[in-house]
Design brief:
The complex is a heterodimer of chains A (340) and B (341).
Chain A: E1 8-10, H1 11-25, E2 29-33, H2 49-53, E3 58-60, H3 65-77, E4 81-88, H4 96-103, H5 106-109, E5 119-124, H6 139-144, E6 149-151, H7 156-168, E7 173-178, E8 194-196, E9 210-213, E10 218-222, H8 225-239, E11 244-248, E12 251-253, H9 257-267, E13 270-277, H10 282-294, E14 303-307, H11 316-322, H12 326-338
Parallel strand pairs in A: 2-3, 2-4, 4-5, 5-7, 6-7, 10-11, 10-13, 13-14
Antiparallel strand pairs in A: 1-8, 6-12, 9-11
Helix pairs in contact in A: 1-7, 3-4, 8-12, 9-10
Chain B: E1 3-6, E2 16-22, E3 29-30, E4 35-41, E5 44-49, E6 54-57, E7 66-67, E8 71-76, H1 85-88, H2 101-110, H3 128-133, H4 142-157, E9 160-169, H5 177-189, E10 197-200, E11 203-206, E12 212-214, E13 216-217, E14 222-223, E15 226-227, H6 235-250, E16 264-268, E17 287-291, E18 295-300, E19 306-319, H7 325-340
Parallel strand pairs in B: 12-16, 16-17
Antiparallel strand pairs in B: 1-8, 2-4, 2-7, 3-6, 4-5, 6-8, 9-19, 10-11, 12-15, 13-14, 17-19, 18-19
Helix pairs in contact in B: 5-6, 5-7
Classes of the chains: A alpha/beta (340), B alpha+beta (341).
Chain lengths: 340, 341
Amino acid sequence: MTTTTERKLTTQKAIAEGIATEMAEDDSVFVMGEDVGTYGGIFGATEGLLDKFGPERIMDTPISETGFIGAAVGAAINGMRPIVELMFVDFFGVCMDQIYNNMAKIHYFSGGNVKVPMVLTTAVGGGYSDAGQHSQTLWGMFAHLPGMKVVVPSNPYDAKGLMIAAIRDDNPVVYMFHKGVLGLGWMTNNPRATGAVPEGPYEVPIGKAAVAREGTDLTIVTIGLSVHKALDAAEDLEKTGISAEVLDLRSLVPLDREAIVASVEKTHRLLVVDEDYQSFGMSGEVITTAVQGAFDYLDAPPMRLATPDIPIPYSHPLETWALPSVERITEAASTLLVAG
Amino acid sequence: MTVDVLMPVISDAGEAAVVTAWFVDEGQACTVGQLIAEVQAEKVSQEIEAPELGYVVDRVALGDPVLQGEPICRIVESRPEAPPATVTGPAVRPEVVRASPAAKRLARELGLELSELTGSGPEGRVTEADVRSAVPGSAMTGLRAVIARNLRQSRSETVPVTLTTRVLFGETLPPHLTARVVKATAMVLVGHPQLNGIRSGDAFTPAAEAQIALAVQTDEGLVTPVVRDAEKQSVEELAASISGLAERARSKALANADFEGGTFTVTNLGPYGIEAFTPVINLPQVAILGVGAARRAPIVDRSGGVVVGHEMVLSLTFDHAFIDGAPAAAFLAQVREALEA
C-alpha cells in the first residue's frame, strides 16, 4: 500500500534528498565536486549531505574538473557509484575528454564488460544576467554525443525521482538541473519550483516524458525551466480560448519519441520551445520525430522557439530578448494556430 | 556572308568523326582564329578555329557522327534570335495542390478531391479545417473550433437580454457611422462602469477606461481586435484606425496584443442591411452592442409633420446576471442621444 503526502520541497532540496536517500541505502554512492561539502553545492544540490555522511563520502575537490571527473570514472569502473558535480555546464570545455571519451564510451569499448555507473550533475540555464560562460543549457550537445543518458528535471517530484533512477542506472547519466527551477532565494521567485515530494525512495523512469498539461489545439514540447514558461503561456492562451498541451520531455536520452508522436497525433500542431541554441539541437530532433512519426496528422509546419545562435548576452534586456519567454511562447502558439 | 565550318579530313573522307568539345555556345560571337571546338576521328584529335568573324550557329551535338568534310556548324554575320525561353529559362515548379498532411489524410479518408477545396492557410494551403468544413456535420478545428467553444461558453454562462433602440438622423447621414458609434459607446461607457469591464466567474472588475473590441469577419471566422482609446480620437482618426485594424485582421497581420484588454464589444451588421439582431456576449466581457443598417425612413418631426430622414437600430445584449434592465436601458438611451446630438 502506498501513502501520499502533501509535504512540499523546493527542487534543490528534492535533489539533495534523492542523493541522501540512495546514500543511506548504498555505501558505494558518494559525491565529489567543487564546493559540494561545506558549502552544500553552490546551487544547494548537496545541501546538508556533509553533516549526514561525513567527508569520506562528500568530498570537496580542487578546481580541476579533468582530475575529479576522471577520478569518478575510475571509481565507477571499480564498482563505486559516484555522483560528480560540474559546477556550471559551461565549464565542460576543460574536462570533456573524460566525459565523452571515457565516461561515455568505456562500456561500449569493453563490449559491456565494464560498466560506468556514475552520475554527472551540472547546473544549466540563464535568465539572471550571468553572461555567456554561465548561462548556457548545452543539453543538445551532451545528447548529441552517444553513450550518455541525459535527464533534465523541471520540478521537485521529478528531480528526486530522476536522481534516484540515475544513481541506480548502470549507465553514465548526465543530470542537468536548471538554476531557475531550483527554488533558490536569490533567483527570480518561481512558484513552480516548490511542490509535493514523497518522503521515501521512488524512481521517475529515465526516457519517459510527462504531459504537464493536457490540451487539444497544439502541443508545446519543451524541457527544464521552459516547461514552467510553457505552462504559464498555456494559462494565457486558455483565456483566448486556445487549449495547449505541454509535454515535459524530462529526458533527452533516451528521447520519448512515442510521447511526442502521440501528442501531435492528438493536437495536429507542434511548437518546440528550447532554451538551448536553435540550430542542430533538441528542437530539430523533436520536429524530425514528429514529421516522421505523425506526418499525416500535421496541419501546419512545426514551429520552434529557441535561443538564437548567439552567445547568451549579459545585458538583461538583451538576455530577455534572446531566451524563450512566456510572451513569445504565447505569441508563437497563437500564430501557429491561427495563421499556421 | 555565311561560312560553313567543316569537320576536317583527319583519316578518310567519308568516314565519320565526332565533336568532343564545344568552346562556344550556340549563337555566341567568335573572332577569326578563336578556338571553337575539338573534334576526333579514330584516335586523333584536332582543334578547330573560327575561319571568320561572326556568330556560331547550327552546332552539331557532341558525339554525333559527322562525315569528315561535312559541316559541324556555320558562322553567320548577324546575331541570331535568342532561343526560346523554355530552353534556358528557370525550371517551372510543377503544379501541386498545397495541403497540410493532415488535410491530405482526411481528404483521402473522406474521399474528397483536394483540388476542389479552397485553402485558407498561407499561400492557399488547404488545412484540416478546410476539409472538415467541406463535409456537413463534421467536427471543427482551428480558429472555427475556438470560436465555437467561446460562443458556447458564453451561451451557457450568461443570461443574455437584448434591448433595441432606434437612432434617428436627418436626410443627410453623418459620415463614418461605425466610428461614430464606437466613439459614442466609449464616451458613454465611462459613466456606466457596470457594463464596462471583465468578469471572472461571479466576480466583475470594472475597467477605468473603455477599450472597445470590434467584431471583424475574416476568411477563417470572426475575430475581435481592440480599438485603443476610442474616446480620445476624432471621428476621422477613429475611422482610419478601425479600417486599419480590420485590414490587418483580414491579412492575418494582428499580434496577440491586438486582441488583449477589450472591455466591451461593438459588432456591425449594417453593411448587410440587417435591422436588429441579438449579438452574443464576448466573454469575459458582460455586454455587446449590435449596430444595424442606417436606412432612409419617414420621421415624425417636432411639429408633427413627416419628413424624410434616416433611422438605425442599436441592439444591446447584456448579462442580466450582472446588470439590471434599467441601467442597461439608460446606457443605451445615452448612446442614442449622443449619436443624435
